[in-house]
């Protein structure tokens, strides 16, 4: 099980954390037919099969791990069929939330960032927030009132969808061209994310380091201040000392290892334990009034 650093517990308890939910957090979700959301690779494989031939170039890009370029060509080839294809993979299957989503929500972080454009976590959080009478705002990278949403209130919670939402598929950040256009047209959004990187502790759950935006933001943070406190990423399996050093030196990230056995059961167990630790810390803070 993950041994949670005191900094993580304290940051979440004081609501000075940002929980970053990647696609891996949705892999345990299913719909009424028992289907699960596709991985990035599976989505591209299905997209290639749907495209008119030839497929050789797309398959070569996929094999070489150039997912963004592969996706770009699929989008070009599908043309008017691109949006229906994306919706068929992420909207119409109606995936349900899973236990990991519940555990993450229980931490009651005031800000959730996610590159996921499905609505699995959003729908669960909305239902729970309505029940708890909290105000939940869901904002996309192109919304112009993000600074107001980030300022928040005592009862507000925020989900910031950094790559857009399936509700507006034409504005999803999905291809190499999308990434370039978004960084140019929405520079103020990235300034807002930069401010969070400097003022909050990030905990990355269910994601790797293959998001170009994420890598660029963290690289800039790690280079700006040599003594900056680290952020944390939960990763399955064992990491070599060299890989840990790479993440630390380039992104100022500390790895929190857990076993991937039994469909990542240890991650869920660890976050449930983190909830207990955070609640204990909040009780201690309430008694000491040292918020």
UniProtKB/TrEMBL annotation:
- Per the record, the domain of life is Bacteria
Q: Which InterPro entries does the UniProt record give?
A: DHS-like_NAD/FAD-binding_dom (IPR029035)
One Pfam family it belongs to:
SIR2_2
- Protein's name according to its UniProt entry: Uncharacterized protein
Taxonomic lineage is: Bacteria, Pseudomonadati, Pseudomonadota, Gammaproteobacteria, Pseudomonadales
């Amino acid at each position: 099980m993950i041994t949670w650093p005191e900094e993580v517990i304290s940051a979440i308890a004081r609501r000075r954390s940002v929980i970053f939910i990647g696609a891996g957090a949705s892999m345990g979700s299913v719909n009424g037919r028992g289907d699960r959301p596709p991985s990035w690779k599976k989505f591209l494989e299905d997209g290639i099969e749907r495209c008119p031939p030839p497929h050789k170039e797309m398959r070569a890009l996929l094999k070489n791990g150039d997912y963004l370029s592969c996706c770009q060509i699929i989008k070009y080839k599908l043309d008017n069929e691109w949006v229906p294809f994306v919706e068929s993979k992420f909207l119409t299957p109606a995936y349900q939330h899973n236990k990991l989503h519940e555990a993450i929500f229980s931490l009651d972080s005031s800000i959730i960032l996610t590159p996921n454009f499905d609505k699995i976590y959003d729908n669960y959080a909305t239902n729970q927030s309505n029940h708890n009478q909290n105000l939940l705002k869901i904002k996309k990278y192109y919304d112009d009132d993000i600074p107001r949403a980030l300022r928040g209130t005592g009862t507000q919670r925020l989900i910031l969808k950094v790559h857009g939402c399936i509700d507006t598929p034409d504005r999803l950040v999905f291809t190499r061209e999308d990434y370039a256009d978004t960084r140019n047209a929405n520079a103020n959004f990235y300034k807002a994310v930069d401010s969070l990187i400097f003022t909050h502790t990030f905990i990355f759950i269910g994601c790797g380091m293959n998001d170009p935006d994420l890598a660029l933001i963290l690289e800039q943070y790690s280079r700006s201040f040599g003594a900056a406190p680290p952020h944390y990423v939960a990763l399955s399996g064992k990491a070599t000392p060299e890989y840990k050093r790479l993440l630390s030196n380039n992104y100022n990230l500390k790895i929190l290892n857990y076993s991937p056995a039994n469909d990542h059961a240890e991650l869920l167990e660890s976050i449930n334990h983190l909830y207990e630790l955070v609640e204990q810390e909040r009780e201690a803070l309430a008694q000491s009034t040292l918020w």
